Amino acid sequence: MSQTAMSELREFKQEQAVKDYITRSHARSQEYGVELGRIYSSKILRGEALREKMDENRELIETAMPFLQQLCDFVRGSGFFAILTDWEGCILDIQGDDEVLREAARLEMNPGAYMHERHIGTNAMGTALAEKIPVQVDGDEHYVTAYHRWTCSAAPIHDPKGRMIGTLDLTGRSHLVHSHTLGMVVAAVNAIEQMLTIRQANQKLELARNSISTIIDAITSGIFTVGPRGYIKTMNKTASEMLGYKPEEIRGLHIASVVDNWENIQQNLEKGINYMEEEIDANGKNGRIHCTFSTYPVEYRDGEHQGVVCVIKEARRLRKIAHKMAGSRAVYTFDKIVGRNQQFLKLIDYAHRVSDSPSTVLITGESGVGKEVFAQAIHNASDRRDEAFVAINCGALPRNLIESELFGYEDGAFTGAKRGGQMGKFEWADGGTLFLDEIGEMPYDMQTNLLRVLETGKLFRVGGNKEIDVDVRIIAATNKDLRTEVEKGNFRRDLYYRLNVVPLELMPLRERKDDISLLVDYFITVKSMKLGKNPVMLSRDQIRRLTDYHWPGNIRELENAVEQIINLNTCRLWEQDCQIISGDLETTPQGNEIECLEEMERRHIERVYQSYNGNVSLAAEALGIGRNTFYRKAKKYQIDCSKTKQ
Length: 646
What we know:
Radius of gyration: 44 Å
Shape: elongated
Domain Sigma-54 factor interaction: 337-567
Largest sheet: 5 strands, antiparallel
Keywords: ATP-binding, DNA-binding, Nucleotide-binding, Transcription, Transcription regulation
Protein name: Sigma 54-interacting transcriptional regulator
Structural class: alpha+beta
Strand order of the largest sheet: 2-1-5-4-3
Strand content: 15-25%
Number of helices: 24
Number of strands: 17
Domain PAS: 208-252
Pfam family, one: PAS
């Protein structure tokens, strides 16, 4: 077959195909009941409904707009206009020559008009949607007579998932029909679809970037990236807050202005030496920040470094997390302190009023009056309540360890030192409160070091040469008369005056006897719940006898006595073999009464010790006392602990 014949055959088949889809479209139009004389679309959106439709298709409109303008520019002055519809055939945008647009407007071909075959019969836009292919409709191929003046070329638009979301149409007067018009429309549609794909990819990239940014900002460590020339490129929210820089302020900021000795760090990084949790002082906008510093080089091709990711963690924040895990917190508050004695209530009010002051507090009083309870309550009423409360018993630490416990030590400071060194109690309490219990037992030579830290807020770790700033409020406590200790030469006079800024002397229990019944009720309730036993009921006479006792061990002794009463079912024992409470106290000498209490405590400790088969740790825990206290009482009562188990 000749080339001419083949060309004629292709044209015939193409014309036949056109006739086929026009024939199908006319049949549908007739089925829809579209009148031949119809001029306007039977469905036109206006007002709020049109605004909602435009909002629904905002992305399609924005993507297609430059291509509509390009089409119109190409055919400007030739009597054509371009139309964009959604998947239902609703006109979203129309652009072209003013004269032809006015003519289209007389037929209500405006945004909001539906060009679906159901509403206006056969037309390129509606038929392209129905047939799902590019189509050209010319002159009387339109179903309604009013459209015979037009020639229309339209192609469906698909989203990246292949769903049909609209059409693009180029319409002009019928005598201007040309086969190339449809080709231009198809080319524009292909460009729109590619742009939609690119736009979706960019949206996914933007979403991924925002997700990564959100994740990085949610990390509680400060993270910033440094380029190969040392300039900071990005910084997460935590780093920005730690260093005090706003996002726009990091542009052009060199890492050397934040991290000292950066040149040496960079040289080490080039040698493959990374930094991991190294302690440094970073230079923030508002001052220096003690933190840990880690580096993660960014590798490119062949292991070449193209910058580094730096991670900083504020030392105080790390300590705060560690405090929560280790339980370094105060649990008592002023509302948990039980009492109704007027003098005692004045003491509580006084302690409450000085809580917010940063001044050092010295709490004095006999053993067992609740000095640590008051210290914790003062901390919890202060503006440091969210920071650590660290307690250390100066009398319980061996003389050779107290310095390292208070001030910490560096790696290799002494034989047996922990690798990497260790922070002392002052650093652990940084930002919070340090409670120095039994301060009167502190060795004299250590008092000088303590005084220096209190006066300067700076310390050196054992074996270290780097000065460390600490912000700690000191609450000290003692059962000794420090004035007398000063006169004896056992306590430094200057340290005494440095500690005794806010003195707080707690009353012994014998001076607040009106609180004893209240405390007994409180301890019975608390101890019964803790021990899983039913609360005991005490008679008025039993309460009176408890009140008459002078309690040399104060509240701690009363608490232990109540626990013994609950454990030993004392309502029965009082009548059988114990003269602690049920004896005639009016005729029994006080010395005998004390001996009876001590005998009761001795038998109870011995019985608990034996029930745990000589395990001191378990026995002490069951009794609610420390191991050192257990040994002291065992020595006092001559309890044989020679077969002790740890």
